[in-house]
Design brief:
The protein is an alpha/beta fold. Helix 6 links the parallel strand 5 and strand 6. Helix 9 crosses helix 12. The longest helix has 17 residues.
């Protein structure tokens, strides 16, 4: 503690945030005994607890698995709040790890599926929740999980995931491919990836991932998370994002697979004009573009979702004529 100087007060009032200790301050100034006492904050990031737990089980985070364990309980609570769970919800947690989110989810979910690739951590989770009939642990690579089979008999589930950075995009795409199983996806991703998900036409971040994700789901803001929230500390910033699969697609397209093929093709050469980048897909790309109402000299990062849908349909019609 330190003594509050009289000239720190303006108009006889203590500075914002100061607490009075002892006799009250008079209107004419601060008493010499006034003290600015700041209550100690409870630590929000008990990183030592996570490290001790890892030591107790003789484990180090495995780099090949992309393990960065969430250690901030405040962030964990905020993530669960973003999931907006009701008492009847089925929840799938991907990458349960040491269970930073699992206990909070188990309190709120009707059924909780914990998917963990690491066999040792999966075994610990199995032991931890052995008495909880509504909690199910699956030791598996999420890229191989058949969610329609896993969730058969339940309504659309809520996904909560702290995804390894090195496989976050493949996992995201797989989840969206099976989006009929889910009502909401709450995902911890690298911030750079999140910026790509919500990027708009004309921006540097706008690309194939932006188009594919926005066609499938509404991208909603979530929560920025700094490296200090994890053990070990990653070299990048993270962000929690909320994806809500569209009940009605924002654009109608005849062949969605063809649209994805077109999108991926043109963004491999994003600085080229569309008439050039489409050439491997058809003999007369300029004619296809004009049929879609698109200037052949435009570049892919300028097209909206609706224009990509129109381009896909025009290309499909063009290819059908030549069969």
């Amino acid at each position: 503690m330190h003594r509050q100087r009289g000239d720190d007060c303006v108009g006889g009032q203590p500075p914002v945030g100061a607490r009075r200790v002892g006799p009250a301050v008079t209107q004419r100034g601060c008493r010499p005994g006034a003290v600015n006492a700041v209550a100690p904050r409870e630590p929000r990031r008990p990183l030592g607890k996570v490290r001790r737990e890892l030591v107790s089980i003789g484990r180090r985070p495995r780099k090949r698995l992309g393990q960065h364990f969430l250690a901030d309980p405040h962030v964990a609570r905020r993530i669960v709040e973003l999931a907006r769970l009701g008492g009847d919800d089925t929840v799938v947690e991907i990458g349960a790890g040491l269970g930073a989110l699992s206990d909070l989810l188990a309190e709120r979910a009707a059924h909780l599926w914990l998917i963990e690739l690491d066999p040792e951590l999966a075994a610990r989770l199995q032991e931890r929740y052995a008495e909880r009939a509504r909690v199910h642990v699956v030791q598996a690579d999420v890229l191989t999980v058949d969610f329609p089979a896993l969730l058969r008999g339940s309504g659309p589930a809520v996904v909560v995931a702290n995804l390894p950075y090195n496989i976050s995009t493949p996992v995201l795409i797989r989840l969206l491919e099976q989006r009929g199983c889910f009502s909401r996806l709450v995902l911890m991703l690298q911030r750079e990836v999140v910026e790509r998900l919500r990027a708009q036409p004309g921006s540097k971040a706008y690309g194939a991932l932006s188009v594919c994700v926005q066609t499938a789901a509404q991208v909603r803001p979530g929560l920025p998370v700094g490296p200090e929230a994890f053990v070990p500390r990653p070299q990048v910033e993270s962000e929690v994002v909320v994806l809500e699969p569209h009940r009605v697609p924002p654009v109608q397209v005849v062949d969605r697979a063809l649209m994805e093929r077109v999108v991926r093709r043109v963004f491999t050469q994003r600085r080229k004009q569309l008439a050039n980048s489409l050439r491997p897909l058809c003999a007369d790309p300029s004619a296809v573009l004009r049929a879609a109402g698109i200037d052949p000299t435009r570049r892919p990062e300028t097209l909206t979702l609706a224009e990509f849908a129109a381009l896909s349909d025009a290309l499909g019609a063009h290819l059908a004529e030549r069969v």
